Amino acid sequence: MAAKSTKNNAGQNFRCTECGWTAVKWVGRCGECQAWGTLEEVGTVVVRTTAATTVVTPAQLISEVDASKAAHNLTGVPELDRVLGGGMVPGAVILLAGEPGVGKSTLLLDVAAKFARNKHGREPQKVLYLTGEESAAQVKLRAERIGAVADTLYLGAETDLGTALGQVEAIKPTLLIVDSVQTFSSAMVDGSAGGVSQVREVAASLIAAAKRLNMTTLLVGHVTKDGSIAGPRLLEHLVDVVCQFDGERHSRLRLLRAIKNRYGQTDEVGCFDLTDDGIEGLADPSGLFTSRTSAPVSGTCITVTMEGRRPLLAEVQALLTPAMGSSPRRTVSGLDSTRIGMLLAVLQQRAGLRLDADDSYVATVGGARLSEPALDLAVALSIVSAKTNKVVHPKMVAFGEVGLAGEVRPVPGINQRIQEASRLGYTHALVPRSSTGPGTIPPDFTVKQIEHIAEATELILHGSDGPYTK
């Protein structure tokens, strides 16, 4: 009896442009990601079975593999090296995603020039920068403006995948930058540039070239309206490192985070300052998120937040005014509005503050986006300070998670936060009580441990100095 054919004779198939899910007929909603109106006709899908072939490169014992070939190479940008786990690994494929205008192209052009100049003991490296969004002349203008011109940096304005791979074969660069992966297309695949099929083919071809030539590859990726990386989710699985580059449009600060990293940890954050003259790494960005008022003001409190493993000082401000109508306003900037509403309810119910007749405005300083639960205590103190018009100790930091019962829960990195506050000149800390305690306390630094939000309220009500204890 003859074997059945594995060919799919459905004629036409439909694929989701968001996640790549396929169906034999058009449906209004994707069965995988539940997005509406994302299925497009892509043609016949043929499933093939591949027979075993002759092995060209036999498998090795893991003890015999030379790991030195995958050693990290410094990029010349310390903040990027921090996020990548020590630098770029030869043959690695790194995807950098971010919103339009956040500075992705500027950062990578700066990395390209510094890596090409190579001031870290090696010979100058060949770097190929392929752009599908600008001409070579436009990239050169930006490179001159930010000082990113190097003798071994090659520019190419391409959108065809075959031509791009030809450029790679001709130059054989150590570092390849593709800006962006959604603008390139292959003549061998149906669909326009940026579609699921095209992105999958372009990424797979570039990854294959990177592994074969042992060439580090940086891919720029677009993001959708909700901030996720555009194209099939398969793209994130194929690459070795996925980095997210974000920041407020009206702020110069940019943060780089590793969402996925096969060669290092994903809890490091790189900080950058984007200016007219380019982009620079910030080794100590703590002062950006605190105000510089000459005299203490009620309604403000300093906290220490953890961005990855890096402690950063930030300031929370609150303003309460009598409500003009029957429904008080709740306006929040830089924080989670739902969590602020919860804290207002906890303060009213557990600490005895009447907040239901006040308009509440809560914000961060410097355009910082803060979402860590450890900010709860500082937010609560700023609200209490604004309500009572009493100033929080100007040299005090506060951090801790507040529960619905009013309890203040421990948070990770208590001692690390205290050490950072002491380094920047603060002398007092209000922290949650924990079984391990606050750890080693720096000289001339005092710590008050609390278990309930009512204790923090009493601290504000009885004066700005408060009953601190060692």
Characterise the protein shown here.
The chain starts with 12 loop residues before the first strand and ends in a 9-residue tail after the last helix. By secondary structure, it is α/β, with parallel strands linked by helices. Helix 8 (376-388) packs parallel to helix 10. It has helices at 78-84, 104-117, 136-146, 161-171, 196-213, 234-238, 337-350, 376-388, 414-423, 453-461, and strands spanning 13-16, 22-23, 39-43, 93-98, 127-131, 153-157, 175-179, 216-221, 241-246, 253-261, 269-275, 278-281, 300-307, 310-322, 330-333, 358-364, 396-398, 401-402, 408-409, 428-432, 446-450. The strands form five sheets. A nine-stranded mixed β-sheet has the order 6-5-7-8-4-9-10-11-12, with helices on both faces. The chain has a four-stranded mixed β-sheet with strand order 13-14-16-15. The radius of gyration is 27 Å and the shape is globular. The longest helix has 18 residues, at 196-213. Helix 3 (136-146) links the parallel strand 5 and strand 6 (153-157).
The CA-CA distance between the termini, in Å, is 86 Å
Largest sheet geometry = 9 strands, mixed
What is the overall shape? globular
Helix/sheet category: alpha/beta
Radius of gyration, whole Å: 27 Å
InterPro entries: AAA+_ATPase, DNA_repair_RadA, P-loop_NTPase, RecA_ATP-bd, Ribosomal_Su5_D2-typ_SF, Ribsml_uS5_D2-typ_fold_subgr, Rubredoxin_2
Family: Belongs to the RecA family. RadA subfamily.
Binding site for ATP: 98-105
Region (Lon-protease-like): 359-470
Features:
disordered C terminus; Rubredoxin_2; P-loop_NTPase; alpha/beta; zinc; ATP-binding; four-stranded mixed beta sheet; disordered N terminus; 470 residues
